[in-house]
Design brief:
By secondary structure, the chain is an alpha+beta fold. 15% of the residues lie in helices and 26% in strands. The longest helix has 18 residues, at 7-24.
């Protein structure tokens, strides 16, 4: 029987297939938006939130890193209360949520058009675990406007959490704001 492929060409095809699969699993920026300076008093800096800087280019994402049993993410602090740095009411239910309730917003790709709305996720960090409900999107596609409280778009790997989540993870208040975590659907 005649073989049409040499060992070398099979190796090249295999390596190309591996490269294409790994490339497809990457989440790269989908665009950029130019920052606008917020009008005076229009950017809520509660919880050390960033305000857009005029002229700065911010990456936008329509995707998030691939999900796994324990997806790596970065936990940030957000107030879901009326007047808090989260802006308007939550996307999932149109309501505000008390900061003593364990709730989160997920980056656009993980939010997945609302498919995780009102479902629980398990967050692991600081040697502890907590279950929180998804109530909002941390928008990775838009920002620097009134609808987004003049804050930049969310990075693609964010779990934006209420104070209750930080307390449950046993993080001291002076360290609230940013923490490497893993999370999964509960």
């Amino acid at each position: 029987m005649t073989c049409f492929f040499s060992k070398g060409s099979i190796l090249v095809i295999l390596l190309l297939a591996i490269f294409l699969v790994s490339e497809a699993q990457q989440c790269r920026p989908s665009g950029r938006i130019r920052g606008r300076k917020p009008p005076p008093g229009q950017c809520n800096k509660e919880d050390d939130s960033d305000c857009c800087k005029a002229g700065k280019m911010y990456p936008t994402y329509t995707c998030s890193p691939p999900m796994s049993g324990n997806t790596q993410a970065y936990l940030t602090l957000n107030s879901f209360e009326a007047g808090g740095d989260g802006g308007g009411p939550s996307e999932c239910d149109g309501k505000y949520h008390n900061d003593n309730t364990p709730v989160v917003a997920l980056s656009t790709g993980w939010y997945n058009g609302g498919s995780r709305c009102l479902n629980n996720i398990r967050i692991n960090g600081n040697g502890r675990s907590v279950v929180a409900m998804v109530v909002d999107e941390c928008d990775s596609t838009e920002g620097c406007d009134a609808d987004h409280d003049y804050q930049p778009p969310c990075p693609n790997n964010i779990v934006d959490a209420s104070k209750a989540v930080w307390k449950a993870l046993g993080v001291s208040e002076d360290n609230w704001g940013g923490l490497d975590i893993t999370w999964s659907d509960a």
